[in-house]
Amino acid sequence: MKSPLHILHLEDDPNDAALVQSTLEADGITCATTCVQNHDDFVAALEHGGIDLILSDFSLPAFDGLSAAEIVRTKWPAIPLILVSGTLGEERAIDSLKGGATDYVLKGHLSRLVPAVRRAMHEVEERAERQRLEAQFIEAQKLEVIGQLAGGVAHDFNNILAVIMCYSDLMLEELGPDSPMRKHAEEIRSASERAAGLTRQLLVFSRKQLVQPVVLDLNDVLEDLSKMLRRLIDENIELTILPGKQIGHVKADCGYVGQVVMNLALNARDAMLNGGKLTIETNNATLDENYAHTHTGTIPGDYVMISVTDTGTGMTDEVKAHLFETFFTTKPVGKGTGLGLATCQTIVQQSGGHISVDSEVGKGTTFKIYFPQVEEALDVAVRPIQTGPVTRGTETLLVVEDDPSVRHLARGILETQGYEVLSASNGQDALHVAREHKGSPIRLVITDVIMPLMGGKVMSEWLTTTYPDLKVLFTSGYTDGAITHHGVLERGVEFLPKPYTPAILTGKVRELLDNVIAPHHKPEETTHGASLAAV
User: 218-374 maps to which CATH number?
Assistant: First the structure.
């Protein structure tokens, strides 16, 4: 029970008020009591707020307990009211309970007062907990609806974004630096990246995005992000990156880690409108039992920490209490979705980590992200590729895609780079194309996963049975559940998520054809995640 208990006592006899106070305190209930004797003072005290419990005499010269109970029931129903009266017959007692009173106690039997107060306050706590759980349930339902919606539209939307992003990149390659159209193409590219990033955030947040963890050195991740970070923050902000020495390895999705750092850096930028300092640092850290006890969900052990510190406006305790709630934002309408920090927390928790915040108004903010250390060797490192020159080749490829726009786009990109490209609209069509092909052998199939008539997985099994040296690259805009249901994310299967850029597509094709990367490594999900992390 709350202590001290803030009580509003409607009582005209000071001796009775003092007796009630002493009775409560004698039984261990610490209380701060406000005594009133009339309607106006009673209502004014309630409107001022902070009242936990109301005690009321039944009859006063200028007011009465039944009227008080009616007012409370109408305007402040969450506050319990207990009648404490010298004379209260059975009929009046029943009327008072019907009128909204929680309980009644006779002044001649104050031994019942403390149990009545404890029971009333326990009911308040139970009601608050029930409301909290109901709110959580509603929030969970809302998240589920968002997840279903995001997952449902992800495939088609990512196909559309792939077309927009790729053609924007192709336009930028053709336009010179002085072309008046270049700025327009850059704006289209930037808008498509923001759209793709928002889709990715929704999928991560609803736990429906693909997670492909690899063993990382967080210093390498920050090095890859450093140029992008410097472009994103304002010139009046001093950025310092301090990589720790001999930090441990962690297992996480590189793109997701980048997204966390980018989100935190952008929030820091927005908190330093007049300039300041942004410091990003890595270090080893050990979280002990005491820390785990005070931070729910944390497991004691060795971690690698990324801290993001700014000298901005800082946050109040009230803001910090809601910081990781979905859709909570302090930014103006149109400036924030309320998904950024909720997404960060989801990403960190998916990696078995923990995120904490320390902030004070006027003194800046520090976020600390802890990823569990792993005793494993680093996976093959591939630097992110966003845009830039595409790679060429002469091999024969087969593109299988049911969306005509994406199929024509991929075929056009690859043919421009010298490849001979066959195409098909589904798995059955692809088998027919492969059987009828008489030219140089098909070296690689780039196929969507989910298609009508026959999907990519079944088609690839048929083809590789006949052509055991054939390589297969799966692509999809669907989310984790849909892809794993079709058996694609098994170890050794190559996967490229949509939307992708011409450089990413041709780079991945070249790497597979040249056997540059280990079979289990899937850098394009990592690469693509990093390219969208700034959104």
Answer: 3.30.565.10
Only one residue has tokens 């009133």, namely 36
489, pLDDT greater than 60:
no
Give the contacts of 177 (CB within 8 A, at least 6 positions apart).
Answer: none
Give the mean pLDDT of 482-501. 67
pLDDT in tens, 114-171: 999 999 999 999 998 888 888 777 766 766 666 666 666 666 777 888 889 888 888 8
Radius of gyration of the chain (CA): 32
- Give the dihedral sign, CA 406/411/412/416: positive
Q: In what order do the strands lie in the sheet with 396-400?
A: 420-424, 396-400, 442-448, 471-476, 494-497
Contact 455, 431 (CB under 8 A): no
Q: What is the pTM of this model?
A: 0.46
Quick one: 5-101 is in which CATH superfamily? Response regulator (3.40.50.2300)
Assess contact for 376 and 215: CB atoms under 8 A: yes
Mean pLDDT for the chain? 82
Dihedral of the alpha carbons of 36, 42, 44, 50, in degrees to the nearest 10? 90
What are the structure tokens assigned to 112, written together? Answer: 């019942």
Q: Regarding beta strands 249-252 and 364-374, do their DSSP bridges make them parallel or antiparallel, or are they unpaired?
A: antiparallel
The domain 396-523: what is its CATH number? 3.40.50.2300
Q: Which two tokens stand for residue 424?
A: 């098909």
Which runs of consecutive H residues, i.e. helices, occur in 243-399? Answer: 254-270, 289-294, 317-321, 340-350
Angle 173-178-179 from CA coordinates, rounded to 5°? 65
Q: Residue 506 contacts by C-beta under 8 Å, 6 or more apart in sequence?
A: 390, 391, 392, 413, 414, 417
334: left (phi over 0), alpha (psi -120 to 50) or beta: left
pLDDT in tens, 493-520: 788 888 888 888 998 999 899 874 443 3
Residue type present at position 399: V
How many Cβ atoms are within 10 Å of 106's Cβ, its own excluded?
16
For CATH 3.30.565.10, the residue range(s) in the chain are 218-374
Closest CA relative to residue 151, chosen from 186, 111, 200: 200
Could you tell me which residues come within 8 angstroms of residue 81 by beta carbon, excluding any fewer than 6 positions away? Answer: 53, 54, 55, 56, 68, 69, 72, 100, 101, 102
Label residues 187-206 b or e (16+ Cβ within 10 Å = b).
ebbeebbebbbbbbbbbbbb
| Tokens matching residue 403 | 């969306």
- Which helix (H) or strand (E) covers residue 367, if one does? strand 364-374
| Contact (CB, 8 A) for 214 and 250 | no
